[in-house]
Design goal:
Blueprint lengths: L2 H17 L4 H16 L2 H16 L2 H19 L1 H13 L5 H17 L2 H20 L3 H17 L4
Helix pairs in contact: 1-2, 2-3, 4-7, 5-6, 6-7, 6-8, 7-8
């Protein structure tokens, strides 16, 4: 069996497992280990399955992500993200499209403080999108994609 055939069967198997409501992580693990075993043999695949999770969970890079998310939750619960949005709305809200500018400004301010895209997205969407629906009387689905895209971009933009 060629590598392309293994890959094609793996994608089909992944879709079948997801359609059967197998959790995505377990479906990807099963398909990946079986595809790896078909390319090499079962001994290296099972060794990889035994050692890789402990190496990934022991990575110092991945321990910072939950801490950034926790910091974003603390800032959101304390009301500081609402204050950032209110300050941006006071500065930019009187212009045409001011609510969008305030959303971008609040997201940029939070992104400059936090530095984490997931935490900024979580805080910004839960704060500004609720205010957009309250102030503009817009349906909740209209503001959520724009809030999420603005907040992700603000945290990854370079700070000079």
């Amino acid at each position: 069996m060629t590598v392309m055939e293994i890959g094609a069967y793996g994608v089909v198997a992944l879709f079948v497992l997801v359609a059967l409501y197998i959790p995505l992580a377990f479906a990807m693990i099963a398909v990946g280990i079986i595809a790896f075993a078909l390319q090499t043999s079962w001994q290296p695949a099972l060794t990889f399955l035994a050692t890789e999770p402990s190496q990934v969970l022991g990575s110092m890079d991945l321990t910072s992500v939950p801490l950034f998310l926790m910091m974003g939750a603390f800032v959101n619960v304390s009301g500081f993200s609402k204050d950032l949005y209110a300050a941006a709305a006071a500065l930019l809200g009187h212009r045409r499209g001011g609510m969008s500018y305030a959303t971008i400004g609040g997201s940029a301010a939070f992104g400059a403080i936090c530095g984490s895209s997931p935490a900024t997205t979580d805080s910004t969407t839960s704060t500004t999108c609720l205010r957009r629906t309250c102030i503009a009387k817009a349906p909740p689905s209209t503001g959520a994609p724009s809030c999420a895209s603005w907040s992700t971009g603000s945290a990854t933009a370079p700070r000079w």
